[in-house]
Design a protein that fits this description.
globular, 11 helices, binds fe (ii) ion, 6 strands, alpha/beta, 4-stranded mixed beta sheet
Length: 250
């Protein structure tokens, strides 16, 4: 972990005390993985599944963030950096800009397997971190953080938040004429993933204009998502968004 240049996020960075996880918690992790992995093996993007192996995620034990980062670092420079919980925007963007992914260490309990109001380690690591092993996605995410860290207008940040939402959180990709999921909110939620795979959600070809014009709804299953044809497309879209932000056309 390289956190020497951080300032806004420093108060939120913690240590993961791996030894305190109980057998019950490892069991909850195993159950969470077990209920979604079979469908992900068929319906997740190839790059997600490759990342899963690269970072050494285990099916029956909670991830040790230091071990994950040790495998990820040499590939893309990203670290899965433990934080105490929800981060204010400046701290969040600062961490992304320095390739530190803010990662919660708590795990939901067995009676809320499907839904947690705030991200936990299952959402953050199982949902997000495998994609950080993909070079283009990794570069995109850092660039996103760098651009947002330099913006103070809330209206512009809200628009850029839509780009994050419809890619990092709820992104899908077309691979061999099939829709595959890669966004963490789809990967880590059985219900959201089934909604897409079951054809209950319209899929438009990704367009930056349409993504920026589509508000985020957090209280219902998605009715519309956007499919990229490659991860280069989100990398390019972020550069276009940056140009628009600079020229105040976002
Ligand atoms: Fe997330």
């Amino acid at each position: 972990m390289s956190t020497g240049t951080l300032s806004a996020s420093t108060p939120y960075i913690i240590q993961q005390n791996y030894a305190v996880y109980t057998e019950e918690q490892h069991g909850v992790w195993a159950e969470l993985v077990g209920r979604v992995l079979p469908e992900l093996e068929r319906h997740a993007a190839r790059e997600y599944l490759e990342g899963f192996e690269i970072i050494g995620l285990q099916r029956d034990h909670l991830p040790n963030l230091a071990s994950i980062s040790a495998r990820l670092g040499p590939r893309t420079g990203w670290s899965s950096t433990p934080v105490s919980g929800f981060l204010p925007a400046p701290a969040f963007f600062e961490m992304l800009a320095t390739r530190n992914f803010p990662t919660t260490t708590w795990l939901r309990s067995r009676d809320s397997l499907e839904y947690t109001p705030e991200p936990d380690i299952f959402h953050d690591v199982f949902g997000h971190v495998p994609m950080h092993a993909h070079k283009v996605f990794a570069d995109f995410l850092e660039h996103y953080g760098r651009v947002c860290a330099a913006i103070s207008e809330n209206a512009v940040l809200e628009k850029l938040g839509r780009l994050f939402w419809y890619t990092v959180e709820f992104g899908v990709i077309r691979q061999r004429d099939e829709i595959k999921v890669y966004g963490s909110g789809l990967i880590s939620s059985h219900g959201e993933c089934a909604n897409v795979i079951g054809g209950h959600c319209a899929i438009h070809d990704f367009s930056l204009d349409e993504v920026l014009a589509t508000p985020v709804k957090v209280d219902e299953l998605h009715k519309l998502l956007f499919a990229v044809s490659s991860f280069d497309q989100i990398y390019e879209a972020m550069h276009e968004a940056e140009r628009r932000a600079i020229h105040q056309r976002l």
